[in-house]
Task: structure prediction
Amino acid sequence: MKQYKSKEIINFLLKNNFIVIRKKWSHIFIYNEDTEKSTVVPFYNKDLKTWTLLSILKQSGFSKNDLEKC
Result:
């Protein structure tokens, strides 16, 4: 699986109707009012680990294919 930075994931979620609720330390809390799904994205300058990325995608209701299409 391709490596993604947290900025790329946050931008992907924001393009898909998610909004930033709050920021705390190095984490960003994101929520979608339509689907009522929420997730927390760690905001680091490094690539996200694969299991962290998959967990974020699962919590937000997306798959690896959805992310790769964008």
User: Anything to note?
Assistant: The first strand starts at residue 19 and ends at 24. The chain has three helices and three strands.
